[in-house]
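Researcher: Here's a chain I'd like modeled. Treat it as a single chain, no partners, no ligands.
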Amino acid sequence: MIDVHFVPTPNGHKVSIMLAETGLPHRLIPYDMLAGDHLKPEFRRVNPNHRLPAILDHDPIGGGASFAVMESGAILLYLSEKAGGAFVPPDPRGRSLCLQWLMWQMSGLGPSHGQAHHFVRYAPEGQDYGVARYTNEARRLLAVLDRRLGEAEYLAGDYSVADMAAWPWIRATRAIALSLEPYANIGRWFAAVGARPAVVQGTEVKNAPNLSSLRPTLTPEQWSNLFGENMLKSSEA
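Model: Modeled as a single isolated chain. Structure tokens:
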């Protein structure tokens, strides 16, 4: 059994999609980040970085004691290995393409779109430089993705963990008012991935309406739990 410490963010949905695709036994343990659940000392034993998602596998690869895995990309690769190499191409070239595009999502698409979300949706009004900087980078990365999907049906040729990693972040572009209409190749891919039964199943758990809105309303305590002093203190304690 795999415990999935979970919030329904794009990063969380990467993992829930992969679990639905593979059918690995698991249970979702929901967290309320606004309440600071992720900052509790006991969660540090699962993820020393206090970020979600994270997993704790009670029947880990190779046996032995329960094993924790943090970072969504690393979790996808761990789950692939546990499921016999599922959704990672077996040939060296395909595997490399899959890992390249997975790392692109982890280092580029996710962080830059995440910063766009922060400045557009959460930061105090008037952050013009941050909004422009990260909105432009979000658009640039959409153009990169669209170009790649004009070359191949999926990021690594066949459907893989790279697509599972990227798809939830592309779905989230609607929250920062970025349209997919200019990107025909992304549109084709987005519809195909979104129609997969496991993707539908893996994204059933959604954020509360407040957190799905263009400008979520946070109390000072909630802000501190997500971005401020409470988050900082949790790592320094």
